[in-house]
């Protein structure tokens, strides 16, 4: 492990165009549960499976059930950036990290100070009325007393998150492809790389410094140039010091 960490430090030191691609595991150290671990949302009991509740069709058919789950299980307003978020923000400040591409919707990268953050699945911090388009913050949404939040115009306020059955934002995808294809180092962390189309983005990397940081094995370990099986916060904070 020591040799792997020394190599990671050396690559970061000599790279000038680093991109980070991250998933739910980046935020678990901020006490936000992921989906697929033993304590994750997929392993808890609900009237409907989480992937059903978080689908566009379910949101339309059963908005009350959707928002009950969403408010209880998807919102963590008191969560704070952890060591991974802070290390990435420092890398950006040093001019080495060009972008963070995240599957997370919690806004913690920005809270830590990262500026160029591409949110593939949207953000709980942004909410819009489906009727008139008025913007509502997370605080606005949480202040709404009714289970299904309504705008002053009467429309439902929908979180700006990508639900199952919905397409990812094309502009965000194109920006992600551009950053990854131009990177001289790609660090992938906290993701099992099983959720597509997001996971397929790493195929656009053309360099020879692909680093996977994850506690468990991923389906793409075979193409990695360096694998580090440690908590992402520990590994990144040590590497960026």
TrEMBL record:
- List residues binding Zn(2+): 129, 132, 151, 153
The keyword NAD belongs to this UniProt entry's keyword annotation: yes
Annotated compartments: Cytoplasm
Its keywords, alphabetically, are: Acyltransferase, Cytoplasm, Metal-binding, NAD, Transferase, Zinc
Q: What does this protein do?
A: NAD-dependent protein deacetylase which modulates the activities of several enzymes which are inactive in their acetylated form.
Q: Which gene specifies this protein's sequence?
A: cobB
Q: Does the keyword RNA-binding apply?
A: no
Q: Which residues bind NAD(+)?
A: 24, 28, 35-36, 103, 105-106, 121, 191-192, 214, 232
| Principal location listed in the UniProt entry | cytoplasm
Q: Where is the Deacetylase sirtuin-type domain?
A: 1-241
This enzyme's EC code(s): 2.3.1.286
In this chain, nicotinamide is annotated as bound at: 35, 105-106
Known SUPFAM superfamilies for this protein?
DHS-like NAD/FAD-binding domain
Question: What species is given as this protein's source?
Answer: Anthropogastromicrobium aceti
Reaction catalysed by this enzyme: N(6)-acetyl-L-lysyl-[protein] + NAD(+) + H2O = 2''-O-acetyl-ADP-D-ribose + nicotinamide + L-lysyl-[protein]
Cofactors (names): Zn(2+)
Q: Could you tell me which PROSITE patterns the record lists for this protein?
A: SIRTUIN
Which molecular-function annotations from GO does this UniProt entry contain?
histone deacetylase activity, NAD-dependent; NAD+ binding; zinc ion binding
What name is this protein filed under?
Answer: NAD-dependent protein deacetylase
Assigned protein family: Belongs to the sirtuin family. Class U subfamily.
Catalytic positions are 121 (proton acceptor)
Q: Kindly name one Pfam family recorded for this protein.
A: SIR2
InterPro entries from the UniProt entry: DHS-like_NAD/FAD-binding_dom, NAD-dep_sirtuin_deacylases, Sirtuin, Sirtuin_cat_small_dom_sf, Sirtuin_class_U, Ssirtuin_cat_dom
Paste the cofactor note: Binds 1 zinc ion per subunit.
> From which domain of life does this come?
Bacteria
> Which sequence ranges are marked TM in the entry?
none
């Amino acid at each position: 492990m020591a040799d792997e960490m020394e190599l990671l430090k050396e690559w970061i030191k000599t790279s000038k165009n680093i991109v980070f691609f991250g998933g739910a595991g980046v935020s678990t150290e901020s006490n936000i549960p992921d989906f697929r671990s033993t304590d994750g949302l997929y392993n808890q009991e609900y009237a409907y499976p989480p992937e059903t509740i978080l689908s566009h069709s379910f949101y339309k058919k059963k908005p009350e059930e959707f928002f009950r789950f969403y408010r209880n299980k998807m919102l963590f307003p008191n969560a704070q950036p952890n060591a991974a978020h802070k290390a990435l923000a420092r890398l950006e400040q040093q001019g080495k990290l060009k972008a963070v591409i995240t599957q997370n919707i919690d806004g913690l990268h920005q809270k830590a100070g990262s500026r160029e953050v591409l949110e593939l699945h949207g953000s709980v911090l942004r909410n819009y009325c489906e009727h008139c388009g008025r913007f509502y913050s997370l605080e606005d949404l949480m202040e709404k007393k009714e289970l299904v939040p309504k705008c002053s115009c009467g429309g439902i306020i929908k979180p700006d998150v990508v639900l199952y059955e919905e397409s990812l934002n094309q502009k965000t995808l194109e920006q992600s492809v551009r950053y990854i294809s131009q990177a001289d180092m790609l660090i992938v962390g906290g993701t099992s790389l099983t959720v597509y189309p997001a996971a397929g983005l790493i195929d656009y990397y053309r360099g020879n410094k692909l680093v996977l940081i994850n506690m468990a094995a991923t389906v793409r370990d075979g193409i990695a140039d360096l694998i580090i099986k440690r908590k992402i916060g520990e590994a990144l904070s040590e590497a960026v010091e």
